[in-house]
Design goal:
Blueprint: E1 5-7, E2 10-13, E3 18-23, H1 26-29, E4 33-39, E5 46-52, E6 58-60, E7 68-73, E8 78-83, E9 92-99, E10 113-114, E11 118-123
Length: 124
C-alpha cells in the first residue's frame, strides 16, 4: 500500500534528541521528494526538512538548520529526521509527506501524500 508511516516521536527535555522515521512503498519513495512537516497547536502546518530521494540533496527551514538532519534509505524506502538540541518550540505533531515536487518548497504541489503524524513534545 502507498501509505506513509511515521514513528519515533515522544517526549524529551530541552537539549535532547529524537529520531523520526517514515517508511513508505517503493512507488511513493520513487516519486522523488519526501519531506517532514510539523504542526503546533493553533498554528499552520510548516515545512521542516525535505530531501530528493534520488540525489539526497536536503533542504531545511531556517528554524531547524544546524539542529535537524534529514536522510534517506533507498533499500528501506524510508526517510529519517534526526532532531538534536531540541527546544520547547519544536513541540508539534510531525508529519511525513511524499510527492513529485521539489525539496526547496518541501515537496508542495499536487497529489501530496501524508502520513498520520507522530507527536513530539519538548519540555523546558
Amino acid at each position: 500500500q502507498d501509505q506513509l508511516v511515521e514513528s519515533g516521536g515522544g517526549s524529551v527535555q530541552a537539549g535532547g534528541s529524537l529520531r523520526l522515521s517514515c517508511t513508505t512503498s517503493p512507488y511513493m519513495y520513487r516519486r522523488g521528494c519526501m519531506a517532514w512537516y510539523r504542526q503546533a497547536p493553533g498554528k499552520e502546518r510548516e515545512g521542516v526538512a525535505a530531501i530528493y530521494t534520488t540525489s539526497g540533496a536536503p533542504h531545511y527551514a531556517d528554524s531547524v538548520k544546524g539542529r535537524f538532519t534529514i536522510s534517506k534509505d533507498y533499500v528501506k524506502s524510508s526517510v529519517y529526521l534526526q532532531m538534536d538540541t531540541l527546544k520547547p518550540e519544536d513541540t508539534a505533531i510531525y508529519y511525513c509527506a511524499a510527492s513529485g515536487g521539489v525539496a526547496e518548497t518541501f515537496c508542495r504541489g499536487l497529489n501530496v501524500q501524508w502520513g498520520q503524524g507522530t507527536q513530539v513534545t519538548v519540555s523546558s
